[in-house]
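hey
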């Protein structure tokens, strides 16, 4: 059976998302692609994946790096159904201030990831 999508980004929840984005920007020698309220996205690294940073949800203090993969999908509803079919579950729907919406899902062990529609052509990777 075919997969439901492709790996788009690694999103890091951070106590200071601006400072952490700057650390990784310098470490990977990449630029800032987008900076909006509570979001910093770096340009893709040589591997083609970008890192993005946002504030950690209030009251959460997990140990280690707090990350959540973003999985780009052609059809969000079909992807949600497939995740549930595979033993995952929907956690919540997030409505961003800019109008974007994505769905937080969890794998069978509770590890969260997001499924979201494709990037606009001007932001998508050009092979």
């Amino acid at each position: 059976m075919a997969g439901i999508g492709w790996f788009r980004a690694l999103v890091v929840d951070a106590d200071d998302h601006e400072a952490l984005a700057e650390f990784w920007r310098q470490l990977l020698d990449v630029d800032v692609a987008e900076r909006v309220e509570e979001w910093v996205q770096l340009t893709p690294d040589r591997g083609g994946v970008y890192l993005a940073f946002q504030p950690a949800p209030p009251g959460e203090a997990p140990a280690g790096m707090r990350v959540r993969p973003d999985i780009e999908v052609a059809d969000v509803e079909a992807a949600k159904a497939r995740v549930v079919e595979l033993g995952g579950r929907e956690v919540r729907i997030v409505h961003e201030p800019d109008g974007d919406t994505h769905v937080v899902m969890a794998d069978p062990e509770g590890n969260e990831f997001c499924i979201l529609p494709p990037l606009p052509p001007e932001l998508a990777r050009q092979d």
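The first strand starts at residue 5 and ends at 14. Strands lie at 5-14, 32-36, 39-42, 50-55, 67-73, 89-95, 101-106, 112-116.
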